[in-house]
Amino acid sequence: MDSVITWLNSFQDQARTLASTQKHQLPSPSASESTPLRGRKRKRLCSMDGQARKRTQQEMNATVNLPPQSAADLSSRSILSPRSPSQASNPSRSASPTRDLLNTLRVSRPSVDCQSPDSPMAPIAMEVRKTLSKDFGDAVIPATLKDSLFAADPQGFDDIPSTAFDHAYDGTQEELDTLWHEVQHIHLEASECQMYNQDENTWAQDVARRVLSWCPSKSGRQFLQLKSVQTQSINRTYLPVSAINIPVSKKADYALVYSRRDPAVRSVCDRFDRAGIALSQMTDTPTKRLVMAFGAEIKPAGGNSQEALAQLAIWFAAGFAKLRELQASALPRQVEEESLSEGQRHNTEGPGITPRNTSTWKDQHASVQREPPFEQQSVAEQPLPQPLPPMIGFTAVGHEWAMYIACEHFAEDNQKIIQVTGPFTRLIASTRSFYDIFKLLSLVGKVRAFAQDVHWPALKKRVLLPLIE
User: Are 253 and 204 in contact, with CB atoms under 8 Å apart?
Assistant: First the structure.
């Protein structure tokens, strides 16, 4: 018992000694520490929270390898507030170049008016449209290819109407095989162009060129020939002129021309070659010596169809301008021949020699070019021109093909207007399916027949022969 009391007394003495030592070691409280305990706890917590945030920011900077001041720089940057679609688009919206170009063509000299098929059309254009639309899509597939079509596309075969098959096809087996091979090749190339998002050049070379070159008959291939004019320029003399006297220049991709491989065409073109007279609106040396039949402008899938139309319309206008120049070149000779037949001119150069014999066609052509342009002559000075045959052209945007008809006519004030009409719903074709390709090749064949049977004879009679006979 005594030992326990002795231990307790010693423990109390140690406790009093320890308390006295801690009291002397603690500093005297400051004024700030004399605040209540609740305030001191809040301050301590805030200090700890700020230190934690500082450590967290330093760790983030070290993680992304930013300099110490980067956080401050980022926090000082301006914050963009969202705007409504109308606020975001209207102030900075720019005008469409294609729409501007079409409007510029409408008020140019001559006026080039691209209109829809429901607008009033020239009678000759209506006749061409009616001819090409007749039975379009009917009897375009030889009936003997039914099995091949079903094997190639079982699902698409059900979409082909029965009227599409030609049970009276009389071509040879070789011609039949060539046709089916060509259709398969076009379908394959067009599908790959669409799948791999190919550019305009690929669509033009791999798809459009094969379509426009197709002709079932050998004589047809000799009469019309496809030429690439992608890299060639149109002679500025024949371009439409805008209201500020600037030629409106654009290019087409392809032109179907009357080929010198045909003896009748070559005999006419050679006589113009000897006279040094160009026959087309192009500047390239070989191409300007050829007579143009129709043109085509190609765009990739997703391309601008209106831009393609504008380029084709400019090609039309330049072609009409060149034909009018050639036609005007024949007028002095026609007047001269009429005067000679009436005895109003006397031969002063001796028997058998007339002024027509003493000057070349090139000299006469040059003299006509030095005259004021047709549009700058007064109405009284302008002779009544013979109508020119209409032109036909295509635009192809990816798979979709559209056809346009261009005619030249004169308004009441004798101002020339180039009227470009299309696309025609009845004549829209495609390269999406085998049936669509058969229809497209049929349409190209109809246009080739129009060029050979109507366009070329009219050009010879009204433009070319008066200059060389």
Answer: yes
Burial degree of 354 (CB within 10 A; 0-12, 13-18, 19+): middle
CA-to-CA distance for 41 and 420, rounded, in angstroms? 88
CA distances from 398 to 85, 190, 317, 371, 392 (A): 31, 8, 25, 45, 20
Q: For position 33, what pLDDT does the model report?
A: 47
Cβ atoms within 10 Å, residue 329: 21
Position 204 pLDDT exceeds 50: yes
Rounded to whole angstroms, the Cα distance separating 468 from 53 reads 96
Lowest mean pLDDT among 177-181, 413-417, 460-464: 413-417
140-178 residue pLDDT tens = 999 999 999 999 999 999 999 999 999 999 999 999 999
DSSP state letter for 282: B
* Tokens representing residue 50 in the block: 């700020």
Here the tokens at position 378 are: 């007064």
Q: Measure the CA angle with vertex 462, ends 458 and 465; round to 5°.
A: 100
- Amino acid identity, residue 49? D
Helix (H, G, I), strand (E, B) or coil at 104: helix
Burial class (CB in 10 A: 0-12, 13-18, 19+), 452: middle
Question: What pTM was computed for the model?
Answer: 0.72
Residue 280 to residue 289: CA distance in whole angstroms: 6
User: What sign has the CA pseudo-torsion 146, 148, 154, 155?
Assistant: negative
Mean residue pLDDT across the chain: 79
Cα 61 to Cα 48: distance, rounded to the nearest angstrom: 20
Residue type, 78: S
Please give the pLDDT value at position 52. 53
